[in-house]
Amino acid sequence: MTAPVIEAPRSPARPARKGVNWEKWGWIYMRVSGVLLLVLIFGHLFVNLLTGDGVDQIDFGFVGGKLATPFWQWWDVAMLWLALIHGGNGMRTLVNDYATHRTSRRILKGAIFAAVAVLIILGTLVVFTFDPCPAGSPADLLPSFCPAS
Amino acid sequence: MSQQTAGTLTTETKRSSRPGGTLYRGREGMWSWVLHRVTGVAIFFFLLVHVLDTALVRVSPEAYNAVIGTYQTPIMGLGETALVAAIVYHAFNGIRIILIDFWSNGVKYQKLMFWIVIGLWVITMLGFAPRHLMNVFGH
Hints:
The structure holds 2 protein chains of 2 kinds. By secondary structure, chain A is mostly helical.
């Protein structure tokens, strides 16, 4: 007969839970996306607000010119996804901290999820279905590379 | 030993009227956390609006220009300055949080790092705000 096993002091009382630890991956996501967003958003702000005439230069022609190139399409789509999920997960943290009732937590988190999902889909569709030279628009509103209509 | 401990506690109690045992409350750790939450919420709600206004490029050049024109007014120009201030703080303090989590000396230097964040924030805003406000008010 074997002697009973005595566990070492302070050994974990219960085994690690099985399955994916979503809270851990959320925690990691906030840090990884945060670093990427620092680069993407600082670049976005520099190009849009500090070059040329800054905020005054922004019109359809300016944005159309940027979104006509794959570089800025992917830059903006990366920002869109990373920022909305980062922000949505941050808002989820606040709901967990401050909403005291199960129902209000569920409604608030549902609203956050819906807003994030709708805007990610909308923004991605806009970036990739965008036409910088829509037919029938006045030429002076369009990017300079558009063929004169 | 106990005499010295008691002495330290007494001095601490006399110096401030805060309840005992608050290494965190009311200090750099708490305020950096509060600012991180407040700026995060503000940025999130701006982001919701900003994706919608940018989506107007898919509607028509006229619709986009009409809405983006409102971003070029003086009041919105001040709002953009506040928004960039919030983003820059949230970004720099986020790096501080990562350092607290992963750098072995992060917790030891978290207060110093808060003041470094504030210093870098001031420098960045001194670079951004004059240039942006000149664009907003100068034309």
